[in-house]
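Hi everyone, sorry if this is the wrong subforum. Our group has a chain we'd like a structural model of before ordering constructs, and none of us has done structure prediction before. Sequence below.
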Amino acid sequence: MTPQQKAESLGIQFEKLQRGYLNLCIRSGSQLITSGHVSDIKGKVGAGVSTEQGYQAARECAVKILRSVWDAHGTLDGLRILKVLGCVNSAPDFIEQHLVINGASDLFHEVFGKDGDGFHARSALGFASLPTGVAVEVEAIFEIVA
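Answer:
Right subforum, don't worry. Here is the predicted structure as tokens:
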């Protein structure tokens, strides 16, 4: 099953997006670089938002990223994910940012394969706050390989 087919089998729907203030995904050479995509879930992880809810928020961000990449490239096929940056709106003593951002990484592994084009570098960082109080923000860099 191709990445596009796999994403669709997971229930992810794709449609052309309306242009906004910033470019959600820009091509530079053979790379697709996304803006940060934020969760609809708001709050501070570790103080009102659980690690599991944060995981779901990160997965939601990854779905939005896939939609933006599709909008810019026309398909998810022929792509390799290189780098993921995950930002978690964290309580001061919260230390499970990596478990939260696994929500994004796990979806990318499902779509692109954990041992193949989905095997990516990643950073998972905690922040005192994120724009509009969202729980998670994720950005990614893809390589066009075909």
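For your construct planning: The domain at 30-144 is CATH 3.30.1330.40 (60s Ribosomal Protein L30; Chain: A;). The chain has a mean pLDDT of 97.
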